[in-house]
Design a protein that fits this description.
Number of domains: 2
Strand order of the largest sheet: 1-2
Radius of gyration: 21 Å
């Protein structure tokens, strides 16, 4: 899980620079919700959670992007091992098997085992 974070002040400042602005109270509500969600995601994903602070200068962001790239390479070769991720994977595999069986039945195909 990757999340981009910025200070509330910067979120409001960037909103003010846009041609289509949101009311400040909507920006604040969305910012608050993002902070709350980031805490939940961090507890779920553990070491597989990466937070990038988007308040830095360009050189700092480049350094963070390079670090993130190496982490992504590691993620792409293995599945997370935490309990919630494994439960999600199992549920998706079961759903996929059920879908395949239903699809075969609907199309009148023999199921491969």
């Amino acid at each position: 899980m990757i999340t981009l974070q910025q200070r509330h002040y910067n979120a409001q400042k960037r909103n003010d620079l846009r041609s289509r602005k949101l009311p400040p109270e909507i920006v604040k509500g969305d910012w608050d919700a993002a902070q709350k969600n980031a805490k939940k995601y961090k507890s779920i994903f553990g070491k597989d959670f990466v937070e990038i602070k988007n308040d830095d200068d360009l050189a700092s962001l480049d350094k963070k992007a390079n670090s993130l790239y190496s982490k992504l390479l590691g993620w792409s070769t293995s599945f997370p091992k935490n309990k919630l991720a494994l439960q999600w994977k199992e549920a998706e595999l079961i759903a996929k098997q059920g879908y395949a069986a239903q699809r075969s039945k609907t199309l009148g195909l023999k199921e491969h085992k």
